[in-house]
Design goal:
heterodimer; A: mainly beta; four-stranded antiparallel β-sheet; B: six-stranded mixed β-sheet; three-stranded antiparallel β-sheet
């Protein structure tokens, strides 16, 4: 079974620039998550999708961050404009349909963003 | 608000010695607790969850609601156990996980 795919693996941008990350979840997984992991911290949930609808975006800084999952499969996370404190690893995870019960979340390799 | 605390950033033990990674949580309801592990250059992966009550790679963890703890234990550490370990909580109707800051476990030969 192929895992969660993310790209790019690394990205370096200047502050105030824009950046986008892409995630392809495991086939058949209806639930998709984006997490932010700052160095020395555990992952923090940014947004959760169920198919193409948002379930939880309470911790997403909506003034600069946006995410979409238009067809209920792939997802993109965008930051515009980036700040120095956005430097982190951005993790995508997916799991089976939440209505089927609580299931394991599978994580991608992450995208390491450095804002200079 | 829910919170997960892992008091040790780094834990170093010798091969064959017992290991205990501490995890305490704060949550008003009935949470689900998990341990995730990240080996060097690998992705984050589930190690075990409290509802399964199983032993994975020799590790066990018991949910203690009185002490609000979910410590991870292994009686005899192996070098391949060296990794970052994260305790995580899922509560209420949400599926997203709340993670602790992680403990870097180093097993010395």
């Amino acid at each position: 079974e192929a895992g969660v795919a993310q790209s790019p693996r690394y990205k370096i941008i200047e502050k105030r620039q824009s950046v986008a990350f892409w995630c392809n979840p495991i086939s058949g997984h209806a639930t998709l998550y984006w997490y932010q992991q700052i160095l020395g911290q555990g992952p923090k949930l940014l947004i959760q999708f169920q198919n193409n609808g948002v379930v939880d975006d309470s911790q997403l800084p909506k003034d600069r961050f946006s995410a979409e999952r238009l067809k209920g499969v792939d997802s993109t996370l965008k930051i515009q404009p980036a700040k120095l404190e956005d430097s982190a690893v951005y993790l995508c995870a997916s799991s089976l349909d939440r209505s089927a019960g609580r299931t394991e979340a599978f994580f991608g390799q992450g995208t390491r963003l450095t804002v200079v | 608000a829910q919170r997960v605390t892992q008091p040790e950033k780094l834990l170093s033990v010798f091969k064959g010695a017992p290991v205990e990674l501490k995890c305490n949580y704060s949550y008003s309801g009935s949470p689900e607790l998990f341990w995730y592990v990240q080996y060097s250059r690998q992705r984050l992966q589930l190690l075990l969850r409290h509802i399964s009550r199983e032993s994975i790679k020799g590790f066990t963890a018991d949910l203690n609601k009185g002490e609000t703890s979910f410590h991870l234990k292994k009686p005899f550490a192996q070098e391949e156990d060296s990794a970052m370990y994260y305790c995580a909580l899922r509560g209420g109707g949400a599926d997203g996980l709340t993670f602790g800051k992680g403990t870097h476990l180093i097993i010395q030969p």
